[in-house]
Amino acid sequence: MSLNISKGNQKRVVIVGGGFGGLKLANKLKGTDYQVILIDKNNYHQFPPLIYQVASAGMEPSSISFPFRKNFQNRKNLYFRMAELRAIYPDKKIIQTSIGKVEYDYLVLSAGATTNFFGNENVERDAVPMKTVSEAMGLQNAILSNIERSITCATKLEQQELLNVVIVGGGASGVEVAGVLSEMKSTILPHDYPDLDASLMNIYLIEAGNRLLSAFSKESSAEVEKYLRNMGVNVLLNKMVTDYKDHKVMLADGSSISTRTFIWVSGVKGQPVGNLGNEFLGRGSRIKVNEFNQVEGLDGVFSIGDQCIMSGDEAYPNGHPQLAQVAIQQGVNLGKNLRRLEKGKEMKPFHYKNLGSMATVGRNKAVAEFASIRLSGFIAWLMWLLVHLRSILGVRNKVVVLLNWIWNYFNYNQSLRMIFYPEKAAEVREREEREARVHWGEDLNEEDTEEEKG
């Protein structure tokens, strides 16, 4: 296979990952003389802040996803390829992807983060993560099918396992999914399942630290905890999960919680890159970069967003927070720097401008912090809605999401609670099996040219 893109005399920028940072960078290179290639394992950009609403059957996946090719229509010298990065060969300035090799002048790694299970194989095998749209759809199916099964199961023990929901991780994702599932319990279950006692559904939110939302102020953390407890969520602080066995979440203090809906949003780590050595990785398996987002020791290689960790910023000695705004601002700065390199000018260092943080718990319940300003309740919730609506790609998606929010505000009875198990076509399954058999780090021969990469 091959990417089938002729390089010509142009300098080539290869961007791996079309998240917030990669997409912003690709858009910032519009009008330059660079040939830009965007590589992503999906053919769409997804909007992670609203993934929890897909997981709770409150929003369609297409409402928070946008096709890359539609975004780049009428863009000359920009190409999209659906593929995965396998290995980097910086001495030859070539990368190996799942569909072939490609040369680069500048390589930008912006594939984001993946779920960190901290080496626990049982948790990794059985817990449901929630980083992508596809994972959110899997969680939605798991929740709905467990509720359906709980009505017909043979024993009370199995029924309670099916109705207990355990969420591990007290960050924004954990708080948001706990809140939306609590609302689902109180508003949807009584109507959809009148023959099921809704009080049997228990939602547990477990956090190893002493408070929720550790990145926020103590006041905001306390406010969110109060919201959740009033909504019926069992908030367990200073509790560390050690394992998952026999449908039980095992805690460090020796106690356990029975569940078949085990959601893990406890941590993230940088998306791994095939043959990239540990000497290039820092805290959380993130790629170490300097103030220009350059990967030191690799000529022409940059990294932005959640996948990287930058040194030299005294305000963030442990790296910048893995937030959309960091990725977006780094994408903007790197786009400007690549333009400067094109003109033979020096690059300018990245400086993060903290625009604030927000988290929502449910209808009329949210917290927001901007510099010295702290908001909570309805005003914070309204600001959360406006900021996220503004950030969604596509006019159609903005309208759909807005109408969906308005409808749900007055009526929780949305009709998205279907269970789908998509079946891949035989051709797709066979192709994926063939690609899986190809060795990640296949050797590159000197004569392996751009035209011979098929």
TrEMBL record:
Enzyme class: oxidoreductase
Domain FAD/NAD(P)-binding, chain residue ranges per copy: 12-331
InterPro entries: FAD/NAD-bd_sf, FAD/NAD-binding_dom, NDH-2, NDH2-like_C
SUPFAM superfamilies attached to this UniProt entry: FAD/NAD(P)-binding domain (SSF51905)
Catalytic reaction(s) noted: a quinone + NADH + H(+) = a quinol + NAD(+)
Family: Belongs to the NADH dehydrogenase family.
Protein name: NADH:ubiquinone reductase (non-electrogenic)
